[in-house]
Amino acid sequence: MYHQMKMMMYGVRDDERPFIEQWQEQNHIDVQLTDQLLTEETVDQARGYDGIVAFQQLSYSNRMLQRMTEIGIYNLSLRNVGVDNIDLKQVAKLGIKLTNVPVYSPEAIAEFTVTQLMQLLRRTKEYTQKFEKHDFRWAPQISKELNQQTVGVIGTGHIGQCAIRIFQGFGAKVIAYDKFHNPELERQGLYVDTLDELYCQATVITLHIPLFPSTQHMIDATAIAKMNPGVIILNAARGQLIDEQALIDGLDRGIIGGAALDVMEDEIKVFNRNLGDQKIDYPEFNNLFSRDNVLISPHTAFYTDVAVRNMVEVSLNNNRQLIETGTADNLISTD
Ligand code: NAD
């Protein structure tokens, strides 16, 4: 008998629904939606489906993965890039095929990063606080100009390259560090050979590298001690790249002049929740959030119409490809 392909999609937000409906209409495939996250408790809802599509900051537990295979599902497609919240060894051991969306809109993250830098340079947080009290004087919040900055870009992949183009458009001097050099940026002579050189020259540092054991806490007290006094640090990559206590000490000592954090070490405690008046049990967050020269955003750099459409369409295409062929263009290697 002909088997009609069926997919189960977890963690669905309302803003994704129009793009999902459009894809369903074009592909004539049944996609069951739930706003629940993919956990050991919810995975059984996918029984009878051919594949699962998911997106969440919460870790995908090994027990959930185990259960997935017990109910006969081996196709898992993530709607985002990062696979740091899933145990790839377990994925390989269980024979699960995993895909991601490697690129959905690098421009979204790059534009957000530059926006945050502009806000820090123009001290908008302080102005907003003053204006809310109907204090419309401009002094003493004198600002800095982006065209006067030396921006050190760490990681020149998809997002880093977009960010570089935008920074250059503003007339900033850009220097870059990456383990692998992009030929076009190399031709422009942007690369420095060591992180120490970048720390020594940059007045702004922006992170666009993945989180690996080797990059965890790369911005620590030792790194910060090498930076220019007053440096601004931007992180829209991964929270654990920065040792938050070292960042706080750097801000206290004036080595760091400001920071914009779209990601944080323990963000799962705070981001994507409506906490109302609840006490926040995250001392570093509370400390950083209270500062005039620190901007925190809840992992929203990616969140644009273009990015969401691509995350939905590419992940559904990936899942369909897995179900139909047993492999996919965006298959994650678990070697
Ligand atoms: P990418 O893979 O295109 O680029 C990453 C770059 O980092 C590569 O050029 C690589 O050579 C370089 N790199 C890796 N390890 C390095 C190291 N130890 N030292 C120096 N360079 C190193 O990735 P991308 O699409 O540009 O994304 C970058 C990061 O942004 C992602 O890993 C992810 O953590 C983060 N991200 C955040 C959001 C958000 O909403 N805030 C959204 C998407 C991605």
Give the SSE map.
Blueprint: E1 6-9, H1 17-27, E2 30-33, E3 51-54, H2 62-70, E4 75-78, H3 88-94, E5 97-99, H4 106-121, H5 124-132, E6 150-154, H6 158-169, E7 173-177, H7 183-187, H8 195-201, E8 204-207, H9 221-225, E9 231-235, H10 244-252, E10 256-261, H11 283-289, E11 294-296, H12 305-325
Parallel strand pairs: 1-2, 1-3, 3-4, 4-5, 6-7, 6-8, 8-9, 9-10, 10-11
Helix pairs in contact: 4-6
This protein binds nicotinamide-adenine-dinucleotide (NAD).
* Alpha plus pi helix count: 12
Under CATH, the topology of the largest domain is which?
Rossmann fold
Beta-strand content: 5-15%
The percentage helix is: 25-40%
Order of helices and strands: EHEEHEHEHHEHEHHEHEHEHEH
Tally of separate domains: 2
CATH class of the largest domain: Alpha Beta
Shape: globular
Oligomer type: single chain
Structural class, by secondary structure, is alpha/beta
Distance between the termini: 36 Å
Cα radius of gyration in angstroms: 22 Å
The low-pLDDT segments are: none
Bound molecules: nicotinamide-adenine-dinucleotide
Q: How confident overall, as mean pLDDT?
A: 97
If strands are numbered along the chain, what order do they take across the biggest sheet? 7-6-8-9-10-11
CATH architecture of the largest domain: 3-Layer(aba) Sandwich
Characterize the largest beta sheet: strand count, sense, and whether it forms a barrel.
6 strands, parallel
Q: How many DSSP-defined strands?
A: 11
What's the CATH H-level superfamily name of the largest domain?
A: NAD(P)-binding Rossmann-like Domain
